[in-house]
Amino acid sequence: MLYDVVVVGSGISGLYAALYARRAGLNVALVCKSNPLRSNSAVASGGINAVLPFTGNDSFETHVADTLHGGDGLGRESVVRMMVREAPEIIDELHSMGVAFDLREDGEIAQRPFGGTASSRTCYIADKTGAAITQTLLVQCRNEGVNIIQNHVLLNIATFKEELSGVVLLRRRDSQVIAFACKSLVLAGGGYAGIYRGHSTNSQESSGDALAVALRSKMRLANMEFVQFHPTTLSGSGTLISEAARGEGAYIVDERGERFTDELATRDRLSRAIVQHQRSGHTVYLDFRHLGEELIDRRLPSARKHALNGAGIDIMSELLPITPAAHYTMGGIWTRSDTSTDIRNVFACGECAHTGVHGANRLGGNSLLEAACFGRIAGIEAARAAKKREFRPIDYASVDRESRYVEMILEGENRFNINTMRRNLGNNLYMNAGVFRSSDSLTSSLEYVHYLMKMSSGLCCINKERSDNVELLSILEFRNSLTVAEAMVMSALAREESRGGHFRTDFPTKDDKNYKMDTIVRRLAGTFLRLSFEGAFEADWWYRIRRFFHAR
Q: Which CATH number fits domain 231-325: 3.40.50.1220, 3.40.50.2300, 3.90.700.10, 3.30.70.380?
């Protein structure tokens, strides 16, 4: 198949990218490995930030300041300003598409407070904001002619003479390896918090595939150590209880009913406070009881449903046990402000990309905004690039290589239990590279990741059927998870300070002198990774000069 633009990923960033590339008059394919509504965007429930004309006591400058302060010194101010300025237009656009934001009594869009913000600037649809936006964008993409290709898994980026020529995919219905030719590519495949299996709010399919593919393609990853733990998830299941609950006034209490922290602190501080309280022998709960049934049913219906279905607890009359879990990742594929990457005509956006907006820690409500803002940019830039080039030949030797790799997994003799290995990886990362880290714990975690890498060669399919083979997908995802976990733990070991979502008990303070820089991971020959620290990426001057003259 030949497409002008291929977008990998069906979250808000991918849908926006596909939509804007299609509006440029191009043939666009949106590729996702399962149902488009199973992305992390679809379960992001809290809201999307924007300073609107009627937002009281707020301003663009305050939104910028809150975002940079939350990013703990690593946010890129120029990119943050661009995102904040576009936020009102994005809200208007979504509203015009049919996103039914909750309204105030005067008919204007309602906004609620979120942690780390000075004002109530988070627009919302009850506590199902992400799902509402995702569904609307999906319908819009279908209506405008985007080719939505489900149940295809990205295996690799195809290049010819170091130029993009297409993507290599696994077609799940028959386990065949195929290739799509494209002129430009947008990676929007989501983050990697799902590698904390059993301790994550992410879906089981969240395994960092796009990042692993990017690393294998010699693209840089940045700031992989910064993982955000959401402070309020159901104990034992990782089901997310949205920050909307605290924004509407729910308390965090212990078994004595005592509040011990600021519920609207940034997520990194709140997660550490909860874990410290738990380590002191306390059980931690969310208390909704004082909010009243009318408010809960109107603004927090999903929280009530999740509590009842996931824990058998009615939050109207009972305390809800909670614990932090891996939720969002600030690191990702290194990008410029126009979403371009290290490979020409390949762009990245959404959680899989590192744009510099979030720095070391993300404010709630900014992720959906970032996804929409940079998804639009990626779609525009990918379309512009596609119009300026012709299709390149696909090197089918690389396709054959991936096909033999899949055949080996399908036909080989299995020696280990894939589900056990995935759970063990998640447990190890949560214990040793979680809310608190140290040199000893991270070294132990890295050794275990390397051990699992060796063992993973013995993972093959017990079920040899080729139709929708779930084992095959699990093994591919697990190997990607190990690649990403290695990069993440190596980055965490190298950053000998505490900043944002990265807290080292052996280096508990921030060190701006040595570490106010981005952590960069590159793949060298074979499987070896090289790690370095580089200044904020304001200065890719050669790229800017080339682009300027090319545009002329």
A: 3.90.700.10
